[in-house]
Amino acid sequence: MADDGKDPKGGRRDAAAEAASTALARPMIARDLDKAGKGQLVYVGRDGEVRDPSGVRNRQFVAYLAFGGITTAGVALAATSFPLLIPFYVLLGGRFVGTIRAVKRVNEASVALSNGDSLTGRALAEPVARAWWAPGRVRALAELRVAIADALDGKGEIALAKVRKARGKLSPRLVQHQFSYYTEINLLSALGRTKEARNLLESRGPIPTGEVLKLSYWIAQMHVWVAEGVPPKPEQLDEGELHDRMRKGLSMTAGRDLLLLCSWLYAQRGEHDDARFVWRQAMDREGSQRLEIAMPKLAEWMTAYKAEHPELDAPEPDDDL
Q1: Radius of gyration (Cα) for the chain, nearest Å?
Q2: Same domain, 143 and 174
Q3: Which of 7, 54, 83, 301 has its CA at 20 to 30 Å from residue 92's CA atom?
Q4: 144 and 237 belong to one structural domain
Q5: 110 with 103: CB under 8 angstroms?
Q6: Is residue 113 located within the same domain as residue 180?
Q7: Is 81 left (phi over 0), alpha (psi -120 to 50) or beta?
Q8: Residue 108: which of 95, 130, 133, 125 has the closest Cα?
């Protein structure tokens, strides 16, 4: 029997609880970006493209098996020839297992933060960020999660400092190092420090080619425009490219933020039919849990635009048969 959405006492269940239940029913790792919802992660390669989770898991399994074999062989060899080395191999194996658990906690923190749960995300990430025995890269990734928790709690300046500090511990070759710049741009835009955000965005060069990096660039770039309050000129973003961004948002389960940014751009250009269509499509998708914190200027525009255009909440008219 289908669930009618009511609790045993006849009341409606809390929307957040239903969203959390939906997130729990999803696998942690999505196979592609378009189908990834809130609370889901994707594996991203250094080129910014999504990686097949099965292939990544297989490579991880081989690596774990190889390391386990080396450790076991080392312990056996030490036991027969040099027993003093046994504690070394045991500690090495323990650190390896601890690192696997730390990475899992960082991923779980990412899931919680994606769902807007800063308390759980912080509780999962902070111990890893302070774990002296964990590899520097893992600690830095945990610090980035703590920074996101700070941002969700409205502590933008603190989050900004932590993002910059964590990035300094990551190799520029890592995709997380690149993502951290877009996180910083969004934080600067949310704080109203638009000149810094603009300079940092321009320092990143042209739009990346990798799917996930490209999406991150698009959102950061459009957020800067919204924060500045000045839409781009047609030569900066023509109709074709804006349409491509809208289509990407339409294809995504979690495309709300991108679609709302597109709606803002259409509205600024006086194309209110397109703005209304994209707005309504955005409402059918998942997005930031706390838009008023993540993109305050966009949230302010939404309130004003909705007051000016009450028809936004009206359903789309049925097509004539």
Answers
A1: 23
A2: yes
A3: 54
A4: no
A5: no
A6: yes
A7: alpha
A8: 125
pTM: 0.81
Shared domain for 91 and 120, answered yes or no, is: yes
Does 90 fall in a domain? yes
Q: Is residue 3 part of a domain?
A: no
Q: Which letter, b or e, does each residue of 98-122 get, where b requires 16 or more Cβ atoms within 10 Å of its Cβ?
A: ebeebbebbbbbbbbbbbbbbebbb
Provide the residue range defining the domain that includes 292.
Answer: 231-321
For the chain, helix (H) and strand (E) counts, in that order, are 14, 2
Q: How many CB atoms lie within 10 A of CB 22?
A: 14
Per-residue pLDDT of the chain (321 residues; tens, 9 = 90+): 334 444 444 443 344 444 444 444 667 778 888 888 888 888 788 888 888 766 545 554 444 444 444 445 444 544 455 555 445 444 545 555 667 888 889 989 999 998 899 999 999 999 999 998 788 999 999 999 999 999 999 999 999 999 999 999 999 999 999 999 999 999 999 999 999 999 999 999 999 999 999 999 999 999 999 999 999 998 899 999 999 999 999 999 999 999 999 999 999 999 999 999 999 999 999 998 789 999 999 999 999 999 999 888 776 665 544
In angstroms, rounded to a whole number, what is the distance separating the alpha carbons of residues 103 and 108? Answer: 9
